[in-house]
Amino acid sequence: MDNSLMQIIEKFPRSRQNLIPVLQAIQKEQNYLNREAVSAVAEYLGLGVAQVYGAASFYTQFRLKKTGKNIIKICKGTACHVSGADNIIDAVERTLGIRKGETTADGKFSIEEVACLGCCSLAPVLMINDRVYARLVSSEVKKILQSYS
Length: 149
Prior knowledge:
Blueprint: H1 3-9, H2 19-30, H3 35-45, H4 49-58, E1 70-75, H5 78-82, H6 85-96, E2 109-114, E3 126-128, E4 131-133, H7 141-146
Parallel strand pairs: 1-2
Antiparallel strand pairs: 1-3, 3-4
């Protein structure tokens, strides 16, 4: 088992109440939850692998497949939708040559469509990792993405 994985897990007391916080901490470090992580969490917390996988697959915040280094979340909430989110999605997909749910071949970017980022007054918005880009127009997308290359 990966030592860095155990260092993350062992920061938490061995209690099933810590399942979600442990999964969040692992995903923050690894960008997704792989099989090794799910098994290690199950063993550490005394849960079945199916229980851990069930929680991880139930909550949309968790990713179970490898993602790019930079995760692009494009808001499709009502305010963003009516403010041109589809144009932003098209610009991101064209610039990167991938579609929503995919990762670039170089592993730098993944695109996710999300229901709402909670920035409705700033629509349309996208988030790259933890940074929000607000009041976007499609012509700005390429420059923003290049700053991450």
